[in-house]
Amino acid sequence: MPTLSPLLAALLAIGLLTPGHAAHAAAEPPAAVAPAFRPLTSLQFSREMGLGWNLGNSLEAIGGETAWGNPPASPMLFRAIRAAGFTTLRLPVAWAIHADGQDRIDAAWMSRVAQVVADARAAGLTVVLNMHWDGGWMQPTAARQATVNRRLATFWRQIAERFKDEDEHLLFAGTNEVMVEGDWGPPKPENVAAQNSFNQTFVDTVRASGGFNRQRHLVVQGFNTDVGHTLAHFVLPQDPTPSRLMVEVHYYDPYEFTLDEKSKVWQWGAGATDPQAKAAWGDEPHVDAQFAKLQARFIAQGVPVLLGEYAALRRDRLPGQAPYRAQWTRYVTRSAQAHGLVPVYWDSGATGENASGLFDRASGRVAVPEVLEAITRRAR
User: Fold this and answer.
1) Which of the following is catalytic: 166, 168, 177, 248?
2) 301-325 burial, b for 16+ CB within 10 Å, e for fewer?
């Protein structure tokens, strides 16, 4: 008879197990432990997500993963991200450009995305998997609304099926910065109605799929992920699973300092010394006020907020900008955390002029330590 475990030996000794059954049980391999999905609300789970980092300009690149100048994502990179202090990875992905005429996602592309998710999870990172810009097909107009919803459901049905057995450390985010192409003004009623319908289609599609997807934490967005538009127009989708939704916004205020590549603005905040070199808005009180509004509207009501992108571009052509850039990053990160938001830094990959990268993605080396420290110092 094979060697018995203490439990089997005890059952045999008291007559509750026959020698034949004991031998059979000892020879049987232990049953695999089924994966578990912890029953946390999204608000509870958001408090575990810590600091986040975007794998920007990679899997969402039009033309393929390396088309925008970044090397393929690697396990080494994700280990470096985790070692630097980040615990959440936002993974922007393009899907439509990797699909056929019936919107069937290419199997090789789905496998590549799955491999990146697995590598990030192996490094200890929670992953937020999204549907990114993808050529701008997701136009929120009355004329396009029905077509977009059909495509959205088709894509998310396939994604949800592929990842249905992943635990709570994989989140799905339905859209990204949905807006009418080229129109940066306030949304019209038809635009708001379309965007809110996209969120509902996403939730309905994922919840109708199998595995853990009925319980999965889902991320939905306000119009163009703008704080003001979200506060004014966002409608939380109906969800048969209570307390499993997060709202996503992005933060790039003031634009003149963070993103405008032609701007001569290079100072920011209370420490600025030259009024001509700074924007007339967007200082520390503005940051706090915007995040306080989100806290009151959503977080205080049990709906967490993902600050899915924030960054200020590097501008070596404007000497002296670096300390202000670090201070902006530090203040936004700390204010977000203080108000209960989950901050997820936008890393574009490149680390030079007009870029927001923090790491050399080929080696994992920290390339911009002052900005990295501005994000992570409080978390350590």
Assistant:
1) 177
2) eebbbbbbbbbbbbbeebeebbebb
Active site residue 309: yes
Domains of the chain (ranges; CATH) run: 1-30 (no CATH), 42-379 (3.20.20.80)
CB 251 within 8 A of CB 177: no
Helices 284-297 and 321-338, axial angle in degrees (round to 10):
20
Helix (H, G, I), strand (E, B) or coil at 197: helix
End-to-end CA distance of the chain: 54
Q: Is 364:77 a contact under the CB 8 Å cutoff?
A: yes
For 264, the token pair is: 């001569």
Q: Of the listed 309, 353, 370, 373, which one is catalytic?
A: 309
Q: How far apart are CA 200 and CA 220, in angstroms?
A: 9
177 is catalytic: yes
Largest CA distance in the chain: 90
Tens of pLDDT along 267-287? 999 999 999 999 999 999 999
Secondary structure of residue 312 in the 3-state scheme: coil
- Treating both helix axes as pointing N-terminal to C-terminal, what angle do 145-162 and 107-122 enclose, rounded to 10 degrees? 60
Q: What is the pTM of this model?
A: 0.90
